[in-house]
Specification:
Pnp Oxidase, Chain A, three-stranded antiparallel β-sheet
Length: 160
Amino acid sequence: MLEPSLYRDAMSRYAGHVQIVTTAHEGERRGVTITAACSVSDGPPTVLACLNASNANNDIFRRAGRFALNSLSADQIELANAFSGRDPTLSSADRFAHGDWRELVTGAPVLADALAAFDCRLVEIKVVATHMILIGEVAGLSFGPQKPALLYMDRGYRAL
């Protein structure tokens, strides 16, 4: 079996666009910084996002039945850090105090100045190993200013 630390070292060399996946359910909001997200199809428009399945707080995505994928720009590192979980003292309200959050179609929080935000209806959840894969049909889109994208590679932020 492959050593998990070797796999993590190899994946650290894989550049990923930094995004915040968000949802809201019964007055509660949740957002998580991720790099594992991508397009699935354009007919119908569909995206996927991967979250840690062992974090019980992430079950809200299942209950809500909706999520938004918010693509960050290089000047939004502070926002990425706020939602990364690096500071466990930050409450959900503290995290959402960073940024200008709105709703489009589904009611999931959408970052007003995200490079692009995909407002999605949850179509399916697959649990694979340690992660849950959220598959969502895009119900709404918004575009912020065109700026360099925020990437994560070699265990640090980069701009493209």
